[in-house]
Write a structure and sequence with these properties.
Elements lengths: L3 E5 L6 H12 L2 E4 H14 L7 H10 L2 E6 L2 E6 L2 E2 L7 H10 L3 H17 L2 E5 L2 H5 L5 E6 L2 H14 L6 H17 L12 E4 L5 H16 L1
Helix pairs in contact: 1-9, 2-4, 2-5, 4-8, 7-8
The structure holds cytidine-5'-diphosphate.
Length: 222
């Protein structure tokens, strides 16, 4: 049976960076489920789909083919055959993903894909509802968080390094808005699973957070 580590938490907590590094150390496959929601959001934004119009949404979803490929241990996202890995990282797509992720039909479309990836390999899967909904039997569940200020600072640095113009205040506001929407939606809201280990990385370096996760995984595997 494969081993699954579920990493959930709010926006910009460092889930993807920490999970990706820990996956390399543990020889696990890193699965970024947020990238899947972002890919759907990109299609909906680019095709001006009214997400409140059930028929239009359902037609759009039927036209979306999501492809995932791993290159140099990096998860690349394909939307109907086109590599969109970079284009899904804008603040606009972040907000769009959080709106789309509240729609049950969108979540349903990704559920089987996420579960089948965990069935096929040892995974570290990060998202919002992995421990609570997608992989409730994961052998290790982590709720990774940090203060809003620290999360906004990290996301600001990341976006600035990628050349995206943004302000710290704006990023902070967007993160709070997204957290609120993600935690208050009806379907699979962001919340800590009862059996998840809380890892607050506000005062941790990246290496410390990676070591903490890796250590917990090794304990559970032995
Ligand atoms: O990297 P960051 O924390 O900014 O976001 P992400 O993990 O890429 O996720 C983008 C959005 O997708 C989130 O704000 C959630 O609304 C949604 N999401 C979700 O609902 N469930 C997941 N398992 C993963 C992401």
């Amino acid at each position: 049976m494969s081993f699954a580590i579920a990493v959930d938490g709010p926006a910009g907590a460092g889930k993807s960076t920490v999970s990706k590094r820990a996956a390399q150390k543990l020889h696990f496959v890193y699965v970024d489920t947020g990238a899947m929601y972002r890919t759907i959001a990109l299609y909906l934004l680019e095709h001006d789909v009214d997400t409140e119009d059930e028929e239009a949404l359902s037609e759009a979803l039927s036209k979306i083919r999501i492809g995932i490929e791993y290159r140099d241990q990096t998860q690349c996202m394909f939307l109907n055959g086109e590599d969109v890995s970079d284009r899904i990282r804008t603040p606009e797509v972040s907000q769009g993903a959080s709106v789309a992720a509240a729609i049950p039909a969108v979540r349903q479309k990704l559920l089987d894909l996420q579960r089948s990836m965990a069935a096929e390999a040892d995974v570290i899967m990060d998202g919002r509802d992995i421990g609570t909904n997608i992989l409730p039997d994961a052998q290790l569940k982590i709720f990774l968080t940090a203060s809003v200020e620290e999360r906004a600072r990290r996301r600001y640095l990341e976006l600035s390094q990628n050349g995206t113009a943004c302000s710290l205040e704006e990023i902070s506001r967007e993160i709070e808005e997204r957290d609120w929407r993600d935690s208050h939606r009806e379907t699979a809201p962001l919340c800590r699973a009862e059996d998840a280990v809380l890892l607050d990385t506000s005062d941790m370096t990246l290496d410390e957070a990676v070591d903490a996760l890796t250590q917990l995984a090794k304990e559970r595997m032995s």
